[in-house]
Write a structure and sequence with these properties.
single chain; about 325 residues; alpha/beta; Rossmann fold; about 45% helix; globular
């Protein structure tokens, strides 16, 4: 009997000690979380240094690819608006997107931004931040509105790792670093699933990226479209031209004899209308791509520096090498 009492006493003592340790551990975790939330985040972004004393609560995304990054990080409850949709929103993010007010078909006005008491603007393109569209980033700073410009969308020859750097910065600003790393891991797995199926030992196909233009051709040179084409097993025929985009003559495009034309889909001119132009144009219709009707339609939102890299790669790879998929 005495042994039972002693055993019970020891068990209860151990249980109390364990509970105390667990409680202390939980308390420590909570304190660490609170410390992280209270930490001032300093971000250097495209010539602007901004401090974030707390995670933004009233954010606005200004271009589709950065809207999708916000939603993929589960930040819809921290958003008071979005704008500038180029294509349909990425399917898996539709439900989250529907929770966020659409402020404008293109860029909202400065007055709209102020009226919703925005504390953070996330732009995908440089055009989002100037006196014509909304305001400059310096002016926004004076209004106590922080901002972020997608570096991978404005810098020369961006890579997938550059997109990951942007994702990590946004995750850090909003104090959701774990979500950022989980998103990057998921993207890596999806990208590997596509690139692992590409045929080996074949010469890259010569590819022309056709954005727009009837007198001349507006095409991708060293931007992320060039990166995507290369990753999908193609050779961008204008990759040697400096800059992210360039206007080239139709004669130049014909001289490079593209075997495939990637048609960027956005705006009021449909991809089908662009293809019809290519087929009927006296010069461009002489390219192998047009004569063999080798067209790949890629939505601008997938071609941009966002979360849809694997989707873009799959579209391109299936268009370049249909027998491999």
């Amino acid at each position: 009997m005495k042994k039972q009492i002693i055993g019970t006493f020891l068990f209860l003592t151990a249980l109390l000690l364990l509970s105390g340790c667990t409680g202390e551990a939980a308390k420590t975790d909570l304190q660490a979380e609170q410390t992280a939330q209270a930490e001032t985040i300093v971000i250097k972004n495209e010539g602007i240094v901004l401090e974030y004393e707390e995670a933004p609560k009233r954010a606005i995304s200004l271009n589709q690819h950065v809207t999708e990054i916000m939603l993929a990080l589960g930040l819809e409850d921290s958003m008071v608006g979005t704008a500038y949709l180029d294509n349909e929103i990425y399917g898996p993010l539709q439900e989250a997107y529907d929770k966020v007010p659409v402020l404008a078909e293109q860029y909202p006005s400065k007055e709209q931004v102020i009226s919703v008491e925005a504390d953070f603007l996330y732009g995908g393109w440089e055009s989002a931040f100037n006196e014509k569209n909304i305001a400059t980033r310096e002016e926004l700073k004076e209004l106590e509105i922080n901002s972020y410009l997608q570096s991978s969308s404005v810098n020369l020859a961006p890579t997938v790792e550059d997109i990951y750097s942007d994702i990590r910065n946004i995750a850090k600003i909003f104090r959701v670093e774990d979500r950022g790393e989980a998103l990057i891991d998921q993207m890596n797995q999806e990208i590997e699933g596509i690139t692992s199926q590409l045929p080996e030992g074949t010469d890259p196909l010569d590819v022309l990226v056709y954005d727009s233009g009837e007198t001349d051709v507006f095409t991708a040179t060293q931007n992320f479209m060039n990166t995507l084409v290369t990753m999908a097993g193609g050779n961008n025929v204008f990759a040697d031209v400096e800059g992210n985009w360039a206007t080239v003559s139709k004669e130049e495009a014909v001289e490079r004899q593209p075997e495939v034309i990637v048609v960027i889909d956005y705006g009021t001119t449909t991809a089908e209308q662009k293809i019809e132009f290519l087929k009927t144009d006296p010069a461009l219709s002489q390219t192998p791509a047009v004569q063999n009707e080798n067209f790949v339609i890629l939505p601008l939102s997938a071609a941009s520096e966002g979360v849809r890299v694997a989707e873009a790669l799959e579209t391109l790879a299936k268009g370049f090498y249909p027998d491999a998929f």
